[in-house]
Amino acid sequence: MTPLLSPNIHRRVPSLYLDASSSSSFFYKTSSPNPTTLERKFSVFAAADMDLAPTTPWTLPEEFLKRTFSLISSDKDRNSVSLVCKDWYNAERLTRRHVSIKNCYSISPEIVAARFPAIRSVTLKGKPRFSDFNLVPADWGADVQPWLNVFATAYPFLEELRLKRMVVTDESLEFLALNFDGFKALSLLSCDGFSTLGLESIATHCENLTELDIQENSIIDLGGDWLSFFPETLTTLQVLNFATLNSELLLLAPQLTELGTGTFSDDLDPNPTSITDLANTFAKCQNLHSVSGFWDATLIYLPIIYPVCENLTFLNLSYASLGADELEQILPRCKRLRRLWVLDTVGDKGLEAVGSYCPLLEELRVFPVFPVDPSQPGVTESGLVSISHCPNLNYILYFCQRMTNAAVITVARNCPNFTHFRLCIITPYAPDSITNEPMDEAFGAIVNSCSDLRRLSVSGLLTDLTFEYIGKHAKNLETLSVAFVGDSDLGMECVMRGCPKLRRVEIRDCPFGDVALLSGLERYESMRSLWMSACNVTMEGCKKLAEEMPRLNVEVINDEEDGGDDFVANKVYVYRSVAGPRKDAPPVVVTL
């Protein structure tokens, strides 16, 4: 067995060996006094009676490795074990059933298929996240069809496809429905290019469908009822997120565990009999643990979901302009709630109810109503402090128009287990709303108190001191999003120098230039991507980065809005790729 890397790589994993205590039973041992989850999984097969010949350390039988690796579901764990040696690399690739690709241009579908021959599930992401804010041209790329062409040959047994920010046409959906006989789950998030015609193909031909999630996409409505194309014999649906509410379909799918609906006011008769009938239909869906949608819902419609509230762990009300009174009607019934998404129309009073009725809450997202009305306070620092009394809270996305250092410091003290802290103060460069000071100490408290922080979004009036705090304390940070903040290039230098696990950086409208861009030279190959727009980066700086790091794809987007300036690089997207420069870049994308 020839190691792929130097023998020092073995220091990264526990000391594994099999002890022949009898002729038919072998036992797993580890040098660690507290075995990890991965190590315990190895013991499952090692402790079983198997006809194995005694082996030397690190030389484990192929069948043992395959059966053991098949128990490992974590992509991170699988990536780690594949680095140990060639035997482990081969065993891992042959037993992997799911692959997650965070950038569709970081690798080619041919390379994926060659390495992993038995994939059943694929997660694929396309456009940069700032495409959600219309900062990426519509024809930028990320077409799913080239991937489907390869998958049809390599993975005819594909069962699950999850796409995010990809271009998906009706032809692609029809291709998917006709070429994968055992296909079960389709999730499209922030995708575009398809219409209800493509959904008809999925409904007609995917006879084993268990999941269809198409809620947050730009879907062209060509008329007709595509839902009617589902056969009446379909009883496999467990997850359904779409844009209309239909009691007949619910009756056909009482086994649903996740349901996303659309508008109430357009599709539902508000008379008491209709509401009662739909509530009775909901009552039959006793397995529901996730409910979302409810566009335009008001107090009169809320009793519809009361029968399923007791088992809900996720409630997405980010499409419903509910006030505090409506929220207070729902939350006391949701005693098991762990994830909650709402609009800022609930106000601080609504968030007080969250703090009172949701002791198990782990994730809260508060979205703004657009267009933002400055005369409406939405949620403030008071609401943020209220929800910090939820002891299990570890993820927050909070859009607000004002904030204070004192409030965030209190939250950091109350919630030291944050892994995701995304505070978005809508007004650019907004200082502490009481002291008028920069918000540096607020984010300094977060990165200092929350040692497991992996994702951070910063906003408001910030100086380079915030980035010094981040570089000093945020040692587990993986994703950093920055907008309308900072003093100089020093800020980004501190981050690049001090955050060893950084994987993705997103920057817009900040005073960072070429020095900041080039400060990550030693880091970019270990990162997934860097986005910089409306900063002070030049074409010369981008060219130097491309010359110094030839294995990176350095793309400059010069759309018409940029004025065609050949000196300024207004939008820069940098990512690592083993596939080289992409071949489908439109004219507005220049690859250096």
TrEMBL record:
It holds the Pfam family F-box_5. Residues 117-163 form the Transport inhibitor response domain. This is F-box domain-containing protein. One of its GO terms (biological process) is SCF-dependent proteasomal ubiquitin-dependent protein catabolic process. Residues 60-98 form the COI1 F-box domain. The lineage of its organism: Eukaryota, Viridiplantae, Streptophyta, Embryophyta, Tracheophyta. SMART domains: LRR_CC. GO terms for cellular component: SCF ubiquitin ligase complex.
